Request: fold
Amino acid sequence: MAGKEKAESIPRLFGTNGIRGVVNSDQMDCQFALRLGLAIGTFMRGHVMLGTDARTSNEMLKAACASGIMATGCDVLDCGIVPTPTLQYAVKVNKAAGGVVITASHNPPEFNGIKCVYKDGTEMSRENEEAIERIYQHQEFSRADWARVGHIRPFTTAIDRYVGGILAKVDVPAIRRARLRVAADCSNGAGSLVVPRLLERLGVKYVTLNADPNGAFPGHNSEPTPDNSSELVELVKSGGFDLGFIQDGDADRTIFVDENGRYLYGDRSLAIVAKYLCSKKKGRRVVTTVGSSMAVEDAVKMSGGSITYTRVGSPVVAREMMENGGIFGGEENGGLIFADFQYCRDGAMAVAKMLEIVALKGKLSKVNDDIPQYFQFKRKTACPEGKKDRVMERLARTAKGKRTDRTDGMKIFLKGGWVLVRPSGTEPLFRVFSESKTSENAKKLADDYVKLVQKLING
Ligand code: MG
Reply:
């Protein structure tokens, strides 16, 4: 089927992180979840593990999606509220046919989403998503005979097994000996169910914020931005903590705050962990996207490792690590991937590893200051779909003679920094990122290139 219909254009359902929308508006309603469930069951053909984050619409979407899956003869194992990486780990270790997470990650409370997990626990490749989209659009559902429809069973051990898996991958005695004290903001998300258990098992004293799952997000929205972290920062500044951390709604991303209450952007934790892991053995490989800070490359090289850049998106990073090797990888948004645990972003594993680093290497502020500091600016500018290719061609002409990287859009290396100009895959706009050693220069680079892109659009 896949070959025959390859030339046909099927409307895209899955974005970069599953399918998202405003509940009972957009397409994100129970009819959609039911029909998508039918497509997912038809594709997966076996036990499907199903979990949700903490959103108010989860039960509705879960029940509809589960119905569709069961109608195709697949059994559903209901993991309840779990972080996305917990569900991914469950799919992997239980050898399920695949998984589904009902989550909109860091989006505002009115959103929800449906994300598919491949049978090895990784995020679905685009190819497999397209296969599901084709089944959905053509309604080629394999409905089971009446006697063979699937069943749904609660599956209650996913979190315990996940926490156990993490403990096996960190130096627990060292963390326990360090008698650490941390502040944890769970953003009223799925991480609320994992973080306390993990910290207790690690012998860490902790104070939690927003640690009850609540889809109204009464504490703050579930994206770990500096604004949403102000309560955490204040708590850490009140004294007596070795570090603080905050997770997004489905707890695949973690952002850290040092012992002085300084918010560390995601590329800092990426660089800190990369440096630490590379220092254990020469020649280790780290994978990140072209949008990541030079700090990561500096950190890797400081400890004798090598770095590989990929297109933007955590599934791309994970795939590169799986296929070509790499002990560690991630994105600049706090999504860290540990190859020896699982090939996906993992918020709780990031916490455990950072605690090990602080236990063994000392204060987080010092560990952070040991790695060069850079400044990034992120801008976007509107561009009609039809003009994107021409803008890229013209941009290439302006970059003649300069060092460039065409891995994703165009990264242009300039005096004192770089600029990344990238057409969005899903929206009519260009993204322009810049980085430099000084904030002024980084801002200037971003401003200059936004102006240049606008000129190329209109020229
Ligand atoms: Mg997330």
Notes: The longest strand covers residues 375-382.
